[in-house]
Amino acid sequence: MASSRSSDLRHRTLAIIMGGGQGTRLFPLTRDRAKPAVPLAGKYRLVDIPISNCINSGIYRMYLLTQFNSASLHRHISQSYKFDHFGSGFVELLAAEQTMSSSTWYQGTADAVRKNLMHFQSTDFQYALILSGDQLYQMDFQKVIDAHAAASADLTIATLPVIARDASALGILQVNGERRITRFVEKPSDPAVLDTFKLDRASYGPMGIHSDTDLFLASMGIYVFNREVLFELLNNNLTDFGKHIIPGAIENKRVYSHVYQGYWEDIGTIRSFWEANLDQTADIPKFNFFDPTVFTRPRFLPASKVNGAAIDHAVISDGCIVSDARIQHSVIGIRSVLEEGSFLSQTVMMGADYYDSAVRRNRPENQGIPLGVGRGTRIEKAIVDKNVRIGEGCILSPAGKAEEVDHPLYYVRDGVLVIPKGTVIPHNTVI
User: Fold this and answer.
1) Is the predicted pLDDT of residue 375 greater than 60, yes or no?
2) Helix (H) or strand (E) holding 361
3) I need a surface site. Which of 54, 252, 311, 342 has the fewest CB within 10 A?
4) CA separation (Å) from 56 to 60, 133, 143, 173?
5) Which of the four pLDDT bands, split at 50, 70 and 90, describes residue 189?
6) Is the pLDDT of residue 413 over 70?
């Protein structure tokens, strides 16, 4: 009976995935693509995470809201997620558009949902599950929806216990004994204010929290709204859920917390992106790409070929050719080519969209340099975006440079060297 009820709740749920804004904190990875389309862990895209979480939770109706550089994202979605023609499942991209009532970009998370209400109102659903498109986590949304229904909540917010150091960058909330939210503050900067939101340690046991550290409950940016409540709360000009909608809803709606205690990472900066990728090279990564399944575009690529390489803690994706190279704590993306004597350490190499050819290589702008990493080239603490051509005898590292650097061939962000998509690095370049 309970299983049947949960299944019914899932089938009455519509997922709305926020594609994010311009993605300035992930620049230059977002220079030519929307943030959800940024490659991840060798063969995935950021957007595959929330979509896979939905599919694994039995939720098959999803809208993805975006507005910047959406061409590659649209291509990825259309090539990756195809549901049964006789079923009701879909993943549909909704880009910002001019209408008779609005001619502006999305002004915030709430505004993005409001400007697409015409699409949602024509869809039959009881619960709206609102998700972020740039977070790395695995969650069974069925548990959140079940808890939401059991509490007769108007709005449920998925929350994460965090320490004080992390709390100032997140929305922090306070709950009563029934887990109903009584107070909320967005990114508190005053330690005195933050201290008033500290969790009572007596509540750790009932919440299933095992810790001897002072903790705070942070919003994960994951919300479950009742249909009519969502429409009512957006019947205004307020632009952001965290800053505007949620504080107001707490005063006159039944707003509850659902505590999540697994791995969660907001992939919002170059460093957090770099670290999350490199974590996949650990013996036991914090995020598991193996189970449950993370879905992405199916590709028909050959198995990777390794010729006499020395590899220590690395992820090597499909269709790569590695020839007598050394790889340490690095992620090697699809179709990557590493020539003899090359060395990669703490590097995220995104790979290529195609295999190289003599015609492409000999175009004037490519200087005769093949796709991939040339002989004797050394790369450390870097992100190499897709379709990059790096010549022979190069040394690429952020060592000795400022935390933020702009250069025609590269950028340094958060102390990490970034080679933008499609860049050609001439032979013997030293960065």
Assistant:
1) yes
2) helix 358-361
3) 252
4) 9, 16, 12, 28
5) confident
6) yes
Interior CA angle at 313 toward 309 and 318, to 5°? 65
Q: What are phi and psi of 160, to 5 degrees?
A: -130, 130
Find residue 44's DSSP bridge partners.
40
C-alpha 141/C-alpha 49 separation (Å) is: 13
Question: 302-425 domain in CATH 2.160.10.10?
Answer: yes
The rounded mean pLDDT for the chain is: 92
- Asked if 40 contacts 277 with a C-beta cutoff of 8 angstroms, the reply is yes
Q: CA 33, CA 66: separation in Å to the nearest integer?
A: 11
272 phi/psi in degrees, rounded to 5: -65, -35
| Residue 265 DSSP SS3 | strand
Structure tokens at 133: 């498109």
Length of the chain: 431
**Assigned architecture for domain 2-272:** Alpha-Beta Complex (3.90)
> DSSP labels for 371-419?
SEE-TT-EEEEEEE-TT-EE-TT-EE--TTS-SSEE-SS-EEETTEEEE
Q: Which two tokens stand for residue 257?
A: 């917390």
SS3 325: coil
What are the domain boundaries of the chain? 2-272, 302-425
What b/e sequence results for 14-23 when a residue is b if at least 16 CB atoms lie within 10 Å of its CB, and e otherwise?
bbbbbbbbeb
**Which tokens belong to 44?**
């995935």
Q: Over the stretch 122-173, which tens digit does the pLDDT of each residue have?
A: 889 999 999 998 899 999 999 999 999 999 999 999 999 999 999 988 999 9
> Average pLDDT of 62-84?
87
Nearest alpha-carbon partner for 45 in 382, 317, 356, 390:
317
CB 417 within 8 A of CB 381: yes
How would DSSP label each residue in 56-69? HTT--EEEEEE-SS
